[in-house]
Amino acid sequence: MIFNNAAIMQTLNVNLNAVAPVALMTVLAIVLMVIDFFLKRENKFSLGIVTLIGLVLILPVAATTVDPAPAFGGMVIADAYAAFFNVVFIIAAIFAVVISNDYLRKISSERGEYYYIIIFATIGMMVMASANDLVNLYVGLELMSLSFYILVAMRRSATGAEGALKYFILGAFSSGILLYGITFTYGFAGTTNLTEIARMGVNLSSANHYLLIAIIMLVAGFAFKIAAFPFHLWSPDAYEGAPTPVTALLSVGSKAAAFAFFLRFFGGAFHEFHAHWAGLLWILSAATMLVGATVAIQQKNIVRMLAYSSIAHAGIILIGVVVMNGFASAGVMFYMFVYAFMNMGAFTVVALMARNDGTGKSISDYKGLAGRRPVLAFVMALFLLSLAGIPPTGGFTAKFFILASAIEARYYWLAAIGVISTVISLFFYAKVIFYMYMKEPDALDDMAPVTQAPSTLAYNIIIFITAVSTMVLGLCPTPVMDMAIAAVSHL
Amino acid sequence: MLTLTHYLILSFTLFSIGVAGVLLRRNIIIVLMSLELIFNSVNISLAAFSYFLRSLNGTVFVIFNITVAAAEVAIGLAILVTVYRARRTVNVDEIDELRG
Amino acid sequence: MVQYVWLIPLLPLIGAFINGVFGSRLSKTTVGVLASALMGVSFIIACSIFVHIISLPVHERSIEVSVYNWMTSGQFSVDINFLVDPLSTLMILVVTGVGFLIHVYSTGYMHHDKAFWRFFSYLNLFVFFMLMLVLGGNYLVMFLGWEGVGLCSYLLIGFWYEKKSASDAGKKAFVVNRVGDFGFILGLFLLFWTLSDSGIHSLNYGEVFAHAGSIDPATITIITLLLFVGACGKSAQFPLYVWLPDAMEGPTPVSALIHAATMVTAGVYMVARNNALYSLAPFTGEIVASVGIFTAFFAASIGLVQNDIKKVLAYSTVSQLGYMFAAVGVGAYTAGVFHLMTHAFFKGLLFLGSGSVIHAMSGEQDMRKMGGLHKHLKFTSTTFIIGAVAIAGIPPLAGFWSKDEILWEVFEKGHIYIWITGLVTAGMTAFYMFRQVFMTFTGECRADEHTKHHIHESPKSMTVPLIILAVLAVTGGVVGIPFFEEGTAAHHFLNSVFSHGAAVVNHQGAAAHDSEAIYGGLEFILMIVSVCVGALGIFLASLMYYEPMKKYAPSFWKAEVMASKFSGLYTLLYNKWYVDEIYDACIVNPIKRACAACLRFDLGVLDGMVNGAGWLTRFAAWLSHKFDIYVIDGLVNSMATGVSLDGRILRRLSSGQIQHYALVFVLGLIVIFGGFILGY
What we know:
heterotrimer, B: 100 residues, Helix Hairpins, 3 helices, elongated, C: 680 residues, mainly alpha, two-stranded antiparallel sheet, 30 helices, 2 strands
């Protein structure tokens, strides 16, 4: 047998620096496992504090680990792009951990494994963001997905289990489809390394059947992860079934990870075939935006509404993938960054509003919130307006960047559909604001559980950080956008 | 003489049976088995590509796949147990409380 | 001085922030004084900027103040910048000036409200967004203000959300405005699209207007029409005016500030600001003018028979806004903006006056239960009557000059039908305003004893703003008095802004200038005509509603007689032409039904897909079944097995949720594959 694969002949350049964030996260997870072993059930919350400290310490490492040379035989690439997304993942994980502490107590499911599985999910996302090889990507993706299957099932109620089962079966199914696509990519390119595929792509005849199968299957697999139409049906159920902090992480982290790889793969390895996949993604993007926005209007449960809202957002972010130039990619990164804050903020409020028995997630539970908790209602309104894309919030600038890049690249109709979807989506966001500001609460006993939310300090800090960041990203987006543009330029 | 196409057809057949199983079978355990079938069909085509392209990557990938699939099944069965405890059923079509 | 223009919007924002966050812990006096004082300082800065601007030579009066670079994307670069020019200076004077007075008034009016601080926080926030709207130097800053004032407006309409009607009105305003904003956003979007197509990557007014000429006429017509749809929503023009009368559910100072003096004029401002675009689209201009004058007439006709003191004023506002649109539609931007300013004075005054009446009547708004209030409310009634005279178009009050200028410009530009409609509307305006005055302030008091006992003049904080506004309503017209060498002061001041538009429009106006003398005389004659029409309106109203005059009225000229004689028309007007009902029947209910269908959208799609797939399989089975029977007899049995198996499959498909999802997944894949195969 002759091994003509260039990746193998390349020296295995073991560069531990490139995997430092992932390695540190793994160490953190193992430490947590060990500590968990010695903790009594009533002390499990201290595990959350250790997780938090660990994540906060790793954050600067992840932000500064920039080493654009491919490491480990070209498997891993720790460029600024990966660092950007790693920061998003870790920030999202930090928020999720902080709000978990109290939420787990509410649903009386204080379990040690919860925290290190969150860490494992984050590791999976980080591996995906810095993967330069399909093998590596797949392992990262599965690490993330498997962790999320467990996390979604964490609330052992009937709905939690049901959501997890749906997510699991469909997720595994989509993994199978994705794998099939990877196989055919391998089949036509003869390698799984992205850099090599890009190099092969230039010489390849474009009407290759393997290529077409590969594109369709890969798009379907990723569209599932970002919950794009028609592969989105799992997400409302999984979101509703999961504990709220997990939902938050799922909506931000897994989406960002999928987009991170989406951009690297379609912008790098498959860039030559833009003409082939752009049309497909165009249709998916348009359909996702419209379906997400229209179906969300009818939702009565706030988590399901946010799930459909996140579907609509995925559609808008997909515009950036379709356009696929430097600014569009930077726009996608910026969008994910803003999305991490505004969506996390919104879910934090949702977690705070949830009652011990798991109720309190209906939109009508938000009636008259402005009278009882004015600040909480105000920040929730801020997050919702940002999600709706109203200036001067971060959501507006993010949408503006994506739509402006589409207009510049002359994707006028796609941008127009984006605008229409944005206009429609304001209806369901505003509905919650109306409920908060212009309705009387249904019954007086609604007030009790909300006003006595424990560990308010943690919630307050998270709400403060997310609200301020949402505003700041709206008022001066340039520094973050510049970072994103710089990161993209080396892609 | 077996060519790449033969392997790919075999793989696709298995894949289709797996998809049909996921779509049609009621019992979650059988759905899980169908999912395994999908993964293994992928493994066959990967191994075939690996052999015919004379590249090792595919073979390595197969090994990773088998590992991941094992983990996947473990988690799937765990979720199944949770569902069974909550609902006393292993039929997919009886699990439809979340909707809308 | 002009560099500090950003302070003007910043101060109300600070006020909104402090009152919003700490307001519940501050005393009512602190909250009120803080909010009003910040507005006052804003007003002083605005004044000094005005002084600075008029001290500059005419061609230097447009100053762009860039605060910072908001965002850069590709070649698009957007600054937060302010454009200080005569138009925006005039607008900030009106907004901060009238805003300040209304803040002061509110400290008295809202004194008993438990959410006092929340009210001032919203009010300050509104002023901030309104100032951003009028000061913004590019379309995105204007858009920010546009959305922001809308938001504050909904919040303030629904301020007393305990009343279901108030929160419903807030919702209605939101929904109707979404329709308008949809047009507005699409218009802006189309503008960016067109500009970026021709390589212009700036949204600053200056650059956009400079390149407006290069846009092809059809596109510019569509853009301006779409923008006008937005203006219709925000400025309550037909057919999107329906939210404004309902918006009167909000506290009266809000009606005065937002729904009369400032926000509703944003549409007029927007058209005037974009005069460079609108002058290039004569067709849009005609639409704008026609919609405007139709709305003016239509709303005035409804105003004739309403009994709620605020509803009359609301329809009057819609009607006056119609005048402004008629003016800007025919290219008389100065006249439109001038009327905007005087309207802010007298309509603000009328609303605050009505608020004072409502305050005195313990919340009663029905004019049939008022009457004879003049002896109790001296200040209120005097100032209210001044406002009514102003709006009725009696010289030398402000409303006369501005309304007359609109009518004159319309006439001069040859739109005779608009002029006639405008004239008739002016008569109706005078009638319904004095009907209101007579019903409220003269005759016998028709209130119940309890209310009667409580009637009292409002506190100083409420009457002083009334007096100041009354003075403005009397004198505000000075800047628009014609017959000077240079044209009116308002023209002189605003001309530089509208020179873009003027350059296009004026070549037909040039001919007019030759015969200045003749026109000067004609203008005077028309003026007398319109005064007579206004006076006639007042006279007719007095015959019908003013006790001492009633005896001179002919027997048929009585409210009840007319109502029964023309009962069809009366019912039609009283029910506001049934527009709300028509909307309910034609738009709201169908949409509700569609939404109910949408409720199961995903599942509906699913069912459709499942049924479709089932139908296809059954069809295929049927086909092959026939095929079997007639062609391959031997396979009949196995095919029958196939059909029954098929039935089992279908049952399975329509019952298992997870499998539905997976099925959609697979069908999606198949469709994509199909598309690709067809594509190659």
